[in-house]
C-alpha cells in the first residue's frame, strides 16, 4: 500500500529547491534548482535499489531490476520542472508517486516481472524552452535531439548548453529505439475542476485535447508619441493589443466557443520600450486548444485572418509561425482499463479528457500509455495556490501502484 | 556667420559614439557612449576658450567668458542623449549649434558682453530614466536632485549610480540659484511636419503643449492556459490589451480628437512570460498630450474610467500613477522676438507650438527662454530615419547666433 505520510514527505522534500515565499515553485528547466532536485532524485532512488540512465536530453531513468531484465522497464514518469509561477504538484506529484511505488516494492522486497523505471522527463512545461513536453517528444520521435538541444530561452541560452552546464547531458541516445520502455503510466494533478466538483480523489484520463503554439511577430514604425498625429502611426503595440482582443473574441463569441475552444496570448515583448517612442516591434506567444483538431485549426485560421485585417488597418507587417502542433489523442485501451479497475477499487470511475499536454502524449507514440488524475483544489494550476490534499496524493500513488502491478502481471 | 560644412562635421563627430547600422543612434543616458561623447564635448569646447562646470546631475556647462564675468552666462543648450531607436538630430543638433556659435565667436576673436555657456542637459529623452527633461527639471526647480538621482532604469540602476560610474556626477549643485544662467536659447529639430510642408528651414517656437506620463499596474491571476475555462480567467494581459485599445479610442473618437489630443502606450511588461500561464501582472507606460492642460486632464480621467470598467469586467486590480505633469507654456516674449527677427532675416516667419517637451520647458521656469526649430524630413523623429539637411542645420546655427547676439546686445 502507498503510504500517505511518506508520499507527502517525499513531495515536500522534492520542493526543497525552487520554492517561493508564496508557497509556490519557480524551478525552470536546467536552472540550479533543477540541478539540485535531479541530484536528489538520483540519490533517493538509489536507496530503493535503482541504477540510473541519463539520456542526451537530460531525461533520467531510475531503473529497479525485475525478474526479466532483458525486458524494457515499465515507465512511471512525469517531470520535476515547474512554471515560473508554478505549484508543488504539477509534474512533481507524478515523479513522487513513482518513487512511492519504488518504496513499496523495496519495503516489501518484491521483485516484479519486468523492471520498472521512474522517469523524470526534461522541460515538460516548455516555460523556459518552448514547446512543452520537449524531451519526452524527442524520446517519442516527434522532435530530433538536435532541434530540442537548440531551443533557446529568451536570453538566448540553448537547452543543450544548459544541460551541459548542470551536468545532465547524458551519454544515452534519447529515443524509444535506443532506450525503450515497455509501457508508460503517469500520475498528474487534474488542473481542472471535474474531480473537485465530483468530490473524487482520482480520475481516469481517456486522452488529451488538441494544442497548437504560435509565435506572432509584428513590425510597425517607431515614431515620437508627442509629435506624431494619431492618423499617421504604424503602432505595433496597438496592433498587438487588437490581436489579443480579437483572439479572445474568437474563442468566446464564434462557433468554437460552445465546443470548448480556448486561445490565450500570455507572452508579449515590445521594442524599443521607451515611453515616448511608439512601439516598432512586438512579439506574441499564442496558445490554442480545443477537444477537436479541426477546431484548433479553425481558431488558428480565424486568428490569422483577423490579425491580417488589423495589420492592414494600421500599416503593420506580420510574421506568423505555428511552431508546435500536438493533436488530440486517446490512450491505450488495455492501459486505461488497468487504471479503471484500480481506480474502481478506490470508488472512482470518472473519465476525463486532459486540457493540458503531458509527457504521456509523446510516450503514447511508442508504447501503451495511460494516466491517472489527482483532484486539485478549484482546478487551479500554474499558480502558487495549486493544491492537492495529502490523502488524494496518496490515492494517486495507490492507483498507480495497482495499475502498474496489474500491467506487470499482464 | 555659421559655417554649414563645419556645423555638419561637428554633428557627425558627435555621432561617433552610439550610432547604429541603420543610420540612427542608440545612446541612452549614462551608457558608455554617453560618457565618450561627454568627454569629446568637453575637449572640443576647450579649444574655443571654454572652461567647464559639471553639476550633480551631470549637466555640463561649457563657459566662454565675456566682458562682464560677474554676469551669469547666456545658455545655449540641448542634449546629447538619444532614444534607443533615435536619430542623429534630436537634441544633438542643439548642442552642435551652440558649439558652432562658440566657433564663430572664437574664429572672429569676439568677446561678448555676457559670458556664454553651451549646455548639455542630462537625460532629456527620459527613455532610460523617466520622466523626460529630468535634469533641466532639477535645475529649474521642478524635481529635487535626490528624486532625480534615485530614478531607475528597468534593470534597477539609478541615475545617480550611473552618473558616478561614468564620472559625471559633478561638484556643482544643480539649480538656477547655485549655478545661474541669464537666459536660455535652444535649437531643436521640429519633430513635426509643419516646416517641411511649408518648405522653410527654420521656425519660431511659441511654446510647448501639455504632457502627462503615467504608470499603470494591472494584477490578475496566473492560471493554466489549457485547462482554465475562458469565463473563469483574470487575464491581466487581455485587460491591458483592452486598455491600449480604449486609450486609442479616447483620442481618436471622443471630443478631444479634433482638439489635438494624443495618447500612446509604448511600454508594456508582462509576467510570468510563459506561453501556457495566463499573465498575472502587466505594467503599462501611458503618454498623454494635448495643446490644452484641461484636455490632458480629461484624457487621463477618461482613461482611468475606461480602465476601471475593464478591470471590473475581468476581475483585475489596477494601480494608476500619474508620475509626471508638464503643463503647456509660452516662451518669453522678448526672447521669442529675438528669434523672430533673426528668423525673418532668413526669410522664415512660421510660429509653432512644440508637440515634444524640451529642456527649455524647465529653463523657462527660471530665466527668459526661447527655441528655434529646424525642419526635419516628414516630421519623423525617434526613428533612425530622422533627417535634417546640412543647410537647414546651418540655418539653425545661424538663427541661434543672431538671436543670441541680439539678446547679448540687449
Ligand atoms: N501539465 C502541464 O501543465 N503541461 C504543460 C503543457 C501544457 O501547456 O499543456
Ligand atoms: N524632444 C524630445 O523628443 N523630447 C523628449 C520628451 C518628450 O517626450 O517630448
From TrEMBL, chains A, B:
UniProt organism field = Amniculicola lignicola CBS 123094
As for family, the record states:
Belongs to the peptidase M20A family.
Among Pfam families, the record links this protein to: Peptidase_M20
Q: Which UniProt keywords apply?
A: Hydrolase
SUPFAM superfamilies documented for this protein: Bacterial exopeptidase dimerisation domain (SSF55031), Zn-dependent exopeptidases (SSF53187)
Q: Which domain of life is it from?
A: Eukaryota
Q: Which NCBIfam families match?
A: hydantase, PRK09290.1-3
What is this protein identified as? Putative N-carbamoyl-L-amino acid hydrolase
Q: What is the lineage of its organism?
A: Eukaryota, Fungi, Dikarya, Ascomycota, Pezizomycotina
What the entry lists under InterPro entries is as follows: Amidase_Cbmase, Bact_exopeptidase_dim_dom, Peptidase_M20
GO molecular function terms here? hydrolase activity, acting on carbon-nitrogen (but not peptide) bonds, in linear amidines
